[in-house]
Amino acid sequence: SGYLPKLRNALEKFGVPELLLNFVSTKGKGGETLKIIPQARGALSALRGQPFFIPLYNLFLTYGGIFRLNFGPKSFLIVSDPAIAKHILKDNSKAYSKGILAEILEFVMGTGLIPADGEVWRVRRRAVVPALHQKYVAAMIGLFVSATDRLCKKLDAAASDGEDVEMESLFSRLTLDVIGKAVFNYDFDSLENDTGIVDVDVFTIMYIYPFQAVYTVLREAEDRSVSPIPVWNIPVWKDISPRQRKVSEALNLINNILDDLIAICKRMVEEEELQFHEEYMNEQDPSILHFLLASGDDVSSKQLRDDLMTMLIAGHETSAAVLTWTFFLLSKEPGVMAKLQSEVDSVLGDRFPTIEDMKKLKYTTRVINESLRLYPQPPVLIRRSLQDDMLGEYPITRGEDIFISVWNLHHCPNHWINAEKFDPERWPLDGPNPNESNQNFSYLPFGGGPRKCLGDMFATFETVVAVAMLVQRFDFQMAIGAPPVEMTTGATIHTTEGLLMTVTRRTKRLIIPTLEMKLATSVKVEADDSLK
Ligand code: HEM
């Protein structure tokens, strides 16, 4: 009896006008009315000129937790209902692939963990997840501290000179430096290089600032995800377009760097005495790459490179965006900032954070949780149905492209009290950290089900350390005359014109302690049981 609505849904997907569709009966055998997914109408012009998830939010308020949106010849299902999101991501996750996302990211991630599906994904997830064990994450705290300390030195200089700082690009550099070391022990050193991130030439990318290659590739991935026509696939265009040539130069450069790093690491693994075991870690080089090679990963494989590239991208702009929007939110809520600074002062005093502090910085963690609610990165999750299925009460066919709007779930006025308010205490400080399981898929900062982010604890600690160290030493205000902070979107939510802030040293003089890079190996990290 699900056949007719399925047919009707399928016809609707191909843009058959409603008038004709009405000839397809929606009555089941017993005369009951079968459900047809509501179709959003008349709002397409609204999609232009603002980040696409904003009009999707307005349509959600009109059409509800699942609706269809036809966009030219393309048709999408927009899901904003927690139960349906849970069904797709967790309960029936095998029936869904990454669809369009895999197509867009293929040029940079190949079959890396984010785009991969099926057996490739299963095998690689099993290989990579163990690399992010507790001892590794604990060791990363030292890395977060030293990178943030370098950022603090830059801010110190700006504060002395009375210069305003554009925080978004600094956060992007901070998290690039962190993820390069964490994933394959490479120092991009982007915080130390003061060039602008925008369009540099190939020469600069190749010989002066390799980190620019990462930005060239990232911008391309973002442009491709919002471009209606895939010009990059047109054979001649690929070769003659200067921009496409620059992208391939940048990709070549990153791949060469990766090949070199893999070779160097392989030699280290061969020379070391360490036996491989569950919590294996080389203290000089705790990187994920080192773990993977020691565990017997195939060095020559393109798959290894794809996975490294995937983690580089996955762990870079996401964390940067979280920091950017957190500081924006804090600038609007001085009361939250005051509480945050008071927690940081009482837990840390003048010293650097350690792994033990991660449990104690409860309010700081809630600030990150709440920032991720208001600005989820990425704001939508993409899937494609591999078989017919039921979404709630609606039958769907194979081949549907689906956007799960995390933005809508996180802003739903029926679910959240004062949904738009930045209120870190909406989750009790002595309660569990909010995650998709304990929030019944109304809150999905790291996705959910088998494809959940494997860097969630890494990213939480990274952002908690950065926020704590920054507010420990500085006060932040929007700069006078700063451009308005508006959103634009690629893979993550960016500002349109940066986040220009005035940074001042806290009046309480702090004695900056010497950096202790000792790895906190004996301490157990309090793991979130839903993680792995
Ligand atoms: C997947 C968010 C940091 C590696 C995901 C997904 C989300 C997410 C929502 C699920 C995507 C989907 O279901 O389609 C974030 C956020 C981060 C962050 C908000 C920072 C605040 C990181 C870091 C790493 C990482 C630091 C690496 C160390 C990955 C990988 C996947 C993933 C490999 C794919 C997992 C799979 O499909 O099996 N991330 N992530 N992420 N993330 Fe993260």
Automatic annotation (TrEMBL):
Top-rank taxon: Eukaryota
GO CC, alphabetical: chloroplast
Residues that coordinate or bind heme: 453
A molecular function GO annotation: beta-carotene 3-hydroxylase activity
Any one of the GO BP annotations: xanthophyll biosynthetic process
Entry keywords, A to Z: Heme, Iron, Metal-binding, Monooxygenase, Oxidoreductase
Cofactor(s) it depends on: heme
Family membership: Belongs to the cytochrome P450 family.
Name assigned to this protein: Cytochrome P450
Organism: Papaver somniferum
First-to-last residue of the parent protein present: 96 to 627 of 634
